[in-house]
Amino acid sequence: MTSKRTHLWRFMTVAVVFCLACVIYLGRLFYIQISGRDDRYSGETTTRTVTIQAVRGEIYDRNGTALVSNCYTYDLALVYGAFSAMDVRTENDTLLSILEALRQSGDISKHEQKYFPFDGAYPYYSLSEEAADADSIPYFRLRRVLGDVGLKADSDVDDVIGYYVETYALLATGSDGKRVYDDDQIDQLIRLRYDMDARRFGVANDYAFAGEVSLPLMTYIKELNLGGVAFTVNVERVYKFPGYASHILGTVGPIYSEEWKYYNEQGYQMNAIVGKTGCEYAFEEYLHGSDGKLLIEEDAQGNILRTEVLIPPIAGNDVYLTIDIGLQVAAEDGLAENVAYVVDHSGGVISYGANCHAGATVVMDPDTFSVLAIASYPTYDLTTYNLNYNDLAIDAAKPLLNRALGGLYEPGSTYKLGVATAALMEEKIEAASRITCAGAYDRFGTYRPKCSTYPHDHSAINVVEAIADSCNVFFYEMGYRLGIDRLNEYMRAFGFGESTGIELGGAMGILAGPDYRQQIHGEIWTEGMTVQAAIGQADNQASPLQLACYLSTLVGGGNRYAAHLLDSVYAFGADEPLYTYTQSPDTLLSQVPLSNEVLATVFEGMREVVENNAVVRNNMSNIPVKVGGKTGTAQNSSGCDNALFVCAAPYDDPEIVISVVLEQGYAGSYSSLTAARILEKYYNAK
Ligand SMILES: [Zn+2]
User: Fold this and answer.
1) For residues 92 and 203, what is the distance between their CA atoms, to the nearest angstrom?
2) Distance from Cα 423 to the centre of ligand 1, integer Å
3) pLDDT the model gives residue 82
4) Residues sharing a CB contact under 8 Å with residue 151, sequence separation 6 or more, in sequence order
5) Cβ partners under 8 Å of residue 332, min gap 6
6) CA–CA separation, 120 and 319 (whole Å)
């Protein structure tokens, strides 16, 4: 199993590091963070305590494919206590050995001495132009170094170079009377010593020699057995599918001051990295382990004499999501393709979709309400999130918004499946009964809301045909016969205006009705509003996730469970999960009364939608099972209608449910392309 191999790898990495560091610790996963240490000297030995920072758990998809893991990098640092205990010649030799190793390995580029204030090389230096500028960093650092090492503020270049040559015996001669260091080595040592002073290398301040040192180089340097040299391990999040699932996975970052009180109470260290958004935030309690403390006793040469774990760290747990990364990729690619398709077919006309630029889709298992994919377009890449944050935050297309959870859209005709269910269950109509559509609805005198096909009519139409043709008049009449209260008992049970229960939170949407109308608009609800609500308009608003939950409730037989992303949680290296999602009375949010006969009738209507609509039928032509669906084309204040599509497959015994919304996507049928791409992946991958 992939995850087991990853576990092993992770353990091996840590084991290698600590064998190299001569720290023997048979425990769980951790890394040592040098910051925040507390050194004490007693005679020849030094003891220090370091934080053993627990490594954050990893995130996997439902099949054990890693989505977010950790990358370990090694920094090379000098530790003052052990380094300064050596004589200056040994110090110099140590520095030159490290520089030579860095140069040979090519890692030298990661060692920067940016602000050396002199041009030239030993013995010919001159003050650089930049360091002569009193506003520059090199100037400031030079003044500080002069003060720190006890040189006069008006010292010239020769004074400074003379100080380093003398203090560190750079012109020392060997027993043969020849100089120990050549000019090039003296130049390197002056530059390095200056940088160590400028960065105030001292008891409380390690000298960060080089960052992200390669493992072979680290091994090599450890074999040189140099005093005062230490390696620290840094851990960064690595995204295995860069640019995908970004909205779901979310970000990590430092604790903000306003969060500190909460995290402090949870026992976090102030410099801890915590989940900020998405699953990283929602599942923080599992992913974050608890830090430990390690005591290290060293001799004057920096050799570790003894270590003692004062507080053992506990690694974060691994989180397995319900997401299927294959479907997730298909969903995101499908949305991008779908948006481009709409724009291509708009002829540049806004009312035909020229401004379509955003959308979302949700893929769900209707038996368990497990979310198999959540995609929101446009999106971003977590790998470059921090770098690009400012641009992303002000982007008019709002790539940071997870439209699948937080975007609210009028459900439009996708609502009619629920209305048909309510009307059939309440016996306001029978499957075979026909309603006459005259192209507009004539019950309210001068107020004549139109059919979708106006000025054409549907004449006498039954419920299956009305679903297939999306006849507004049929559903106006169903709304009228049900009344808003009875209709909303059903629509609320389908999850409209209700929480989906998903761990990431999300919009509740709006269930149109008298209460909302009165509260928000101060208006009395009318029967005219009821008939508009029955075609998914009036005040109705739903997120793509709510639409997926609604359809899952319907095709699953009426039980609405909490949508969820968490599948299971494993402790590091464990075979048995700490947690596995199971359906229970607690996860059952509501129930819609639904008979098999009514469900069969609605399934028939959904199948006809796919077969009757040429665009949908064409998009679904590669799917090996019959798909049932419903289009929606909903008014939108932005200039072009939003396109919606919900579907289930196979139509009469669904195992997968999909919702799609394209902002300004022109026609509901257009948005079936995204669903088709997801189903192609689902059926080919099976
Ligand atoms: Zn009609």
Assistant:
1) 19
2) 17
3) 81
4) 145, 159, 160, 163
5) 243, 244, 245, 375, 377, 379
6) 55
d(CA 556, CA 569): 27
Distance 404 CA to ligand 1 centre (A): 31
pLDDT band at 14 (very low <50, low <70, confident <90, very high): very low
Count of CB atoms situated within 10 Å of the CB of 517:
19
All residues with CB under 5 Å from ion ligand 1: 437, 451, 458, 471, 473
- CA proximity to 190, closest of 86, 116, 79, 84: 116
The span from the CA of 668 to the CA of 672, in Å, is: 7
Q: What number of CA atoms fall less than 13 Å from residue 66's CA on the CB side?
A: 20
Share of the chain above pLDDT 90, in %: 69
Which runs of consecutive H residues, i.e. helices, occur in 106-231? 137-149, 157-167, 183-198, 215-224
Q: Which range, of 81-95, 259-273, 551-565, averages the lowest pLDDT?
A: 259-273
Rounded CA-CA distance 414/536 in Å is 7
Mean pLDDT, residues 198-214: 84
Its pTM surpasses 0.70: yes
Q: What is the CA radius of gyration of the chain?
A: 34
CA of 474 to the centre of ligand 1 (A): 6
Mutual orientation of helices 416-425 and 596-612 as an angle, nearest 10°? 150
CB atoms near residue 236 (< 10 Å) = 12
pLDDT bin (cut points 50, 70, 90) of residue 232 is: confident
Give CA separation, 388 vs 69, 232, 394, in Å.
Answer: 21, 28, 10
Q: What is the pLDDT of residue 582?
A: 93
Distance 429 CA to ligand 1 centre (A): 16
Q: For residue 352, what are its two tokens?
A: 């035909």
Q: How many angstroms separate the alpha carbon of residue 5 from the centre of ligand 1?
A: 59
**For the chain, what is the mean pLDDT?**
89
299's CB contacts (< 8 A; 6+ apart) are: 44, 45, 46, 305
Contacts of residue 258, Cβ cutoff 8 Å, sequence gap at least 6: none
Distance 472 CA to ligand 1 centre (A): 5
Q: Residue 348 has what pLDDT?
A: 93
CA of 459 from ligand 1 middle (Å) equals: 7
Expressed in angstroms and rounded, the spacing between residue 460 Cα and the centre of ligand 1 is: 9
pLDDT in tens, 363-402: 999 999 999 999 999 999 999 998 899 999 999 999 999 9
State the DSSP code for 562. P
